[in-house]
Every structure is written in structure tokens, then in C-alpha cells.
TrEMBL record, chains A, B:
The lineage of its organism: Bacteria, Bacillati, Bacillota, Bacilli, Lactobacillales. Transmembrane segments: none annotated. CDD domains: cinA. This is Putative competence-damage inducible protein. Pfam families: CinA, CinA_KH, MoCF_biosynth.
Length: 424, 424
């Protein structure tokens, strides 16, 4: 079975929005082992949409339409497919009730158009929309499968995940259960990771392995098919064990929407530690990233941004001697910043960031040259040097994530190369 | 003339990358008045690509191919089009020289495949690639126009902008100069802005007006066609004047990659002011946003993150009386934070952020309830209340941008509604 994705909407053809739906569905289909050979975008135009349907019918088995299920006169996907297939539209009672309730709650009068959202193709399976009004449609006809999904990603994703996927799985295989696990890595590039897992990737059948390069990190998605959830999990467990053995130190967490800051927050709370920071080139970005996670107040009370020499000295208390002798882009300055921050903010861990963000050099150091200082109650302080060599804001972002990863590694007793320990 | 965009690449069909090129080109074409009725994505497969070419030829005049110009055996756009149109491939001397130089500099041996990047369709206009190796092709044949562009956006965009656009403009009209200006707005929603400009948008011919909803802001792109750059600028000036008259207070700057922080930095430097911040719910995000702009050290030396009550009191010096009496989500606390930060960091302006980021409420205040405090040398301090009602990180982001906009408005003497002035 192969699929074709057809997104309907003039706003896509004007470049006003990105076709993120097509990428999402393509990824999901690939994971299920369904080939997708074409993605098409066509405007809100009956004639052209019909032409696209004709082409799709000739070359694909599954036709997934995105968008055009709404109440306005521009929304004509259902109407066009109904005419094309000669299958009438009928009102779905469940969806209609939802529409009525929605307008009653808003205390607004319904127009004739609003009913459109409750219409589906006759004899189809109605796909429930838990986050919006327009019902989806799943219709099998003469060896073809027609799936109609709403355009907003917040409606399309749950509908695909909860309604379409189980139907498609039941259709395509006897192994009707599919389980995915997302492994998140930091500190290793996609190509290095892929080369370390090369034989596993080459041999993959079940589970499948897919690597994705994300924003300064890499995710690996393991997907198993089976007859029960338990058997799928067992297959994934065993593959993950092998991956852990090879690149385990870079694996920081699990899940599609997880982030390094969240894992570090958890570790700090579990170990009942309080963290603070003194930030120069990152300018508050480390603390902001930490504070992006809810519940962070249990391990974070505050910190300081010391952008200038004066603030480093006068407010934080770094000695002018250190700055004069070693400069601010130095292990000594980084260590002193971390220690002084820990004193000032009464924390168990202090971390600091000092270096050249770019575009200019600082103290003769090229952009991307960064020292991260680390101070922890009862342990010798140290600093670690990094060379990022990207643009200003990527250097800053990379420094923040490297700081989080450094904390993770210290708390989990993982290796730290290239450390400079203070002599104090 | 109407165009069709055909992106070639299996990674798109696997959902590994987003088709940002199609959105970019669609936007550019729309601006030039060229209709784009279809976008297609097809894999690295000769047979299927040829089929797509056949469909495109039947329904469109301009065929823009993206990707598949590289050196690997998967790259087959040129080869397929060459066979389809029966136009041979020839080596372009300029492009070949670039390839040779590239490998010589790398001290790496060239393989036969590397030559592929210098090949173009015979009798076509060669499109120079200033940021990569693969040459582009612009071929007119029997009333059709075939344009071949490289896949990486960093190569595609300059090639389209500098090479394709002038050719297309010369093709489609006698007014061969086109000038765009991007106006950036904060604090006004896209629909409100559109309704205020409704008559202008409805009447638009030259210049055209397009509004885009961005990340917490709205941009308006004005595009004029004419015979000279000067006449285009004059047309845009006159339209912008009308827009300024209607919604000028929300217009904060110009340009595709500009941001509010940059404009605020400029204003601060022009007026020789130093800023500092005390951040609670934003957790350093305001200072980080400011520090994302290079050259910020001229107006920013540092600031503090006061996430907990204790740090607000012990390090920043907010009186426990204020916190006990009014709570931290209050005008009084916000004003005191801004004033104390100004003292501690010796700045002319102090700004503060305190409120409930979410997901939980704080002191009975719903997520998104935020006070921003403002203190400036020689002026009465004040605080302003905001209600954002989005999720945690959108509330935080929104607070940061609202803080920047507040500074902008103060420095430009623009209206500030809803101000609470301290009695001190």
C-alpha cells in the first residue's frame, strides 16, 4: 500500500503557512511502513482539486486530504470528493450535536454553513475531532482509501493518532499494535551517532530506527510492531539496551517534547540541590531555559547576569586581580563567577558562563570560545572550555545546553573531558 | 503566467525536513503577481519525477524544480529533465572551475560525480550559486520556462533573489524593478491590523500589501513594481505614510530579520541610557533577548533573576513588608523590583517582571497575569498590568516582548494605557 498526501488551501500556495502537516503525516506513515510517493498542495478550487484526485487515484492506494473541512465557502474538499466519487454527504449526529452545543455555549446564532462541519461522506467511518468541530472521514471504496483530516495541526494530530492510526494498522498488518519510543541525545552529532549505530540501522526491520537532527540535539525514534503492547515494549527495550551500551552517556532523556532543562530539573530536585548561575555571554539564557520548565522553583531561586567587568566585580564580587591577570574569558574567572554566585544566592551548585558570543572576538578569543565554571558544595570547583564556532545566538544556545549537560554529567558521575580544576 | 513548484527529495517524503523552500518561493511568486496553483513533492525516482513533469507541463507555464542538483546518484533532476525535454546536459565552465577550486582547496581528490554539479541544460541561462557548488538552470523552451534550483535554502534563496527574480521580472512585465519593504508591528493582532487597513488591502494593485502573523508579532510587506528603484520607493513611501497614520504607534521597525530587542537597543544607545532588569517569571528571558543583539554591552551591563521571595528580599532588597502586604504579583512589588535593580546595577532604567507564568496560579492570580515595573532616573516609577492567558512559555515570551515595547513607548513618548504610578 502506498499513500499520497494532498493538502488543500490557498494560504499554502501563497506561502503564508508552512506545510507542517505533510511532514508530520509523512513521518507517521514511514514509521508504519506505508510508502508515501507524493505530496501535493492545491488551492481551494474545485476543478484543480478534482484533477489532483484523478492523478492520485491512478498512482496511489491511500489518499489523505488535509484541510477544507471548515464552514466557509472556500472549504470544499468534502463536496469535491463527494461529487468525484459520487458518494453523497450526510450529517453525522455526534458531530452535529457538538456544533450545536458549541454555538449554544457561545450564545451565537448558527448559520447554514456551520452545519457543513458535521457532514461526512456516506457509509464512511467518522473520525472524531476532540479539539475542534469539523469531523473527519475514513472511506474505503473500490480498493482505495480516502481519509479527510482538518487543517489545523492541533486538530489533525490527535485525529490521526487516535482515530486513523489504529484503522490503518488494522488494515495493513496483523500486527495491529505499534509502539514508539523517542530517545534524546545531546553532545553527539547526527552523523557520528548514525555511524555508531550503522549496523543496527542497516539491519532494521522491527523495531525500526530513525534518527533526526534537532535543535542542537539528535533524537532517535524506535518503533516496534507486534500483537501486544508488551511484546512491542520488549523489542524496544532490547534494542535500546544495545544503543545504551554504545552511546549511553549522550542519552539524556525520552519523549517527543522533552528537553535537557527538564531532566536537569528532575535530577536537582531528586538530589535536593539548589542551583544558581552567573551569566556573561549567555545573558540570562541559561536561567531562562531552566525557568522554561514548570516546577523549577523547587531547585532554583535566582541568579545574576554579569555582562560587564564592573558588574562582575562590584555586584558579584569577582576580584579585579583575576580579571586583570587572566581576563574574563578564562578558567579562573569562570570558576570565581560560579563560586561567588553560589555564595550570593545561597545555592549548592553555582554555574557560570563567560566567553565570546560573537560576532566580534573578545580578549583575542574567537567567537564561540566559552568557559563554563562549576562550583558545588563539598567538591573542588572546575571550569571547562568549549569552542562552538557558530553565529552569536547559536553559540549562546549551545553554551546553555552544554552547561545543562555538564550538570547532568556531574550529577550522574559521567565522564567530563578537558576539565580545569581550580587550585584553591 | 502561472507556476508550479516541484520539490524533489525523498527526505521530504519521509517527513525528515520541512518544505520551507516551497513556502519561500510561493511567497516570492505571489509578490511578483505570478499565480502558483500547485506544489508537488516527489522522491528521488526518475519514473515518478517524469510523471510529475508531464502533469506540470499540461497545467502550468513555469516549472520550478527544487533539489536533486548535487553530486550523488540520488540527484537526478537535471538528468530526468534532460531526457524528458530531449535537451542534452553540458558542462558550464564557470561552475566547473568553482568545483575544481573547491576540491583543490580541500586537498581532496575529485570523483567523476563531482562534475555533475557543474552541468546544466544546453542553451539555458546558467544561474550562479554564490553559496554552494551546484549551478542552477533557467531554460525557455516552447512557451515553457524550466527553472532548476538547489535544495539547501542557503543556496536557493540567494540564487532566486539575485538570478531568477530579475529574469522573471523582465519576462512578465516592462516594469522590471521590484522593491519590497517589511514593516514590523508589535501589540496589535493580525486581524485587527488587517481590519484597520482593510480598504487599502482591498484596493491594492501597486504596491501590494501582504500581512503575516509571526511569533507574537505581525509583519506587513509592501511591494512596488516600477521602472526605477526610486519610483518604487516613492510608491511605498506614500503607502507607508497612510499606514503610519492609522497604526503608527504599533510599528516598531523594518526588515525581514529585525527584532524588537534590536530597536530598543538602538534607542537606548542613541539616548545614552543604561538598562538593567529584575526578572521573576521571565527568569532571565528579557536579559537574554536583549543580549541576543550584538553590541548590547553599550547599554546593558547586567541584571538579576529573582525567582524566589527570599532572593527578591535578601539579594535585591525588596522590603518584606511590600511582599507581605501586596504579594509578589503586584504593582508595588514590580515597582520596587525595578527601582532596586536600578540601584544595584547602577543603571538609568530598571525594568522588572513579576507574575504567574503558569501552569499553576500564583497568589490567586491566573497564569498569564503579569506586572511589569518601570523605573527611570528623574521620572516617577510605574507598573503596568498584562493578562496573556497563553501557556507558560508563551506567557513568558509575551512578557519579554511587552517589556521591550514598554521601553520603546516610553523612550518615544507614545501612549501607555493602564499605568499604575507609585506614590513615592
Amino acid at each position: 500500500m502506498n499513500a499520497e498526501i494532498i493538502a488543500v488551501g490557498t494560504e499554502l500556495l501563497l506561502g503564508q503557512i508552512l506545510n507542517t502537516n505533510a511532514a508530520y503525516l509523512s513521518r507517521e506513515l514511514a514509521e508504519m511502513g506505508i510508502d508515501c510517493y507524493y505530496q501535493t498542495v492545491v488551492g481551494d478550487n474545485q476543478k484543480r482539486l478534482e484533477e489532483v484526485m484523478r492523478h492520485s487515484e491512478r498512482r496511489s492506494d491511500i489518499h489523505i486530504f488535509i484541510g477544507g473541512l471548515g464552514p466557509t465557502k472556500d472549504d470544499l474538499t468534502k463536496e469535491t470528493l463527494s461529487a468525484y466519487l459520487n458518494v453523497p454527504l450526510v450529517t453525522d449526529d455526534g458531530a452535529a450535536e457538538k456544533v450545536i452545543r458549541f454555538y449554544r455555549n457561545l450564545d451565537r446564532k448558527m448559520t447554514e454553513n456551520n452545519w457543513k462541519q458535521a457532514q461526512v461522506l456516506k457509509d464512511s467511518t467518522v473520525l472524531k475531532n476532540t479539539t475542534g468541530l469539523a469531523a473527519g472521514t475514513y472511506l474505503e471504496k473500490e480498493g482505495h482509501l480516502y481519509i479527510l483530516l482538518p487543517g489545523p495541526p492541533s486538530e489533525l494530530k490527535p485525529m490521526f493518532e487516535n482515530e486513523v492510526k489504529p484503522l490503518l494498522l488494522a488494515e495493513s498488518t496483523e500486527e495491529s499494535v505499534m509502539v514508539s519510543r523517542v530517545l534524546r541525545f545531546f553532545g553527539i552529532g547526527e552523523s557520528t551517532l548514525a555511524s555508531k549505530l550503522n549496523d543496527l540501522i542497516e539491519q532494521q526491520t522491527n523495531p525500526t530506527i530513525a534518527t533526526y537532527a534537532g535543535d542542537h540535539e539528535v533524537t532517535v525514534r524506535l518503533t516496534a510492531k507486534g500483537t501486544t503492547e508488551k511484546s512491542c515494549q520488549a523489542l524496544i527495550d532490547s534494542l535500546e539496551k544495545e544503543i545504551q551500551f554504545r552511546v549511553g552517556e549522550f542519552l539524556y532523556g525520552y519523549g517527543e517534547n522533552n528537553r535537557l532543562a527538564n531532566e536537569v530539573k528532575q535530577l536537582l530536585i531528586e538530589k535536593r540541590l539548589q542551583i544558581t548561575a552567573a551569566e556573561s555571554l549567555t545573558g540570562g539564557a541559561f536561567q531562562s531555559e531552566l525557568a522554561s520548565v514548570s516546577g523549577v522553583s523547587e531547585c532554583f531561586a535566582g541568579g545574576i547576569v554579569t555582562y560587564s567587568h564592573t558588574i562582575k566585580e562590584d555586584v558579584l564580587g569577582v576580584s579585579s586581580d583575576t580579571i586583570e591577570r587572566y581576563g574574563v574569558v578564562s578558567a579562573d574567572c569562570a570558576i570565581e563567577m560560579a563560586e561567588k554566585a553560589r555564595d550570593l544566592f545561597q545555592a549548592t551548585i553555582g554555574i557560570s558562563f563567560t566567553g565570546a558570543a560573537g560576532p566580534s572576538s573578545l580578549e583575542g578569543e574567537l567567537p564561540g570560545s566559552v568557559w563554563i565554571g562549576f562550583s558545588m558544595k563539598g567538591k573542588p570547583s572546575f571550569a571547562k572550555h568549549y569552542r562552538f564556532a557558530k553565529d552569536r545566538n547559536n553559540n549562546r544556545k549551545r553554551a546553555v545546553l552544554s552547561g545543562l549537560d555538564l550538570i547532568r554529567r556531574v550529577l550522574l558521575d559521567l565522564p567530563l573531558s578537558n576539565k580545569v580544576t581550580s587550585e584553591k
